[in-house]
Amino acid sequence: MSRRGVLGGAAAAGGLAAAAVAGPAHAGPGKGAPRATEYVIAGAHVLSMDPDVGDLEVGDVHVRNGRIVAVGRHLKGRGPRIDARGMIAMPGLVDTHWHLWTTLYRAMSSTSPATAYFALNVANGVRCLPSDLYHGARLSLVDALNTGITTVHDWSHNLRSPAHADANLRAHQEIGLRGRFSYGTPQGFPTTSVTDLDDIARVKEEWFDSGEVPLLHLGLAGRPPGFSPESVFRPEYDFAQELGIPVSYHANSTRAQGDLQMIRQLAEQDMLGQDTQLIHALYTTEAERAAVRDSGSSVSISPWSELLIGYGVTPVPEMERSGMLVTLSVDTMSLVGSADLWSVLRLTTGLYRGIAEQELAVSTRRVLEMATIDAARSLGLGDEVGSLTPGKRADVVLVRQHDVATAPVTDVPNTLALATGAENVDTVIVDGRFRKRGGRLLDVDAARVVRETEEALAALLAR
Question: pTM to 2 decimals?
Answer without folding.
Answer: 0.92
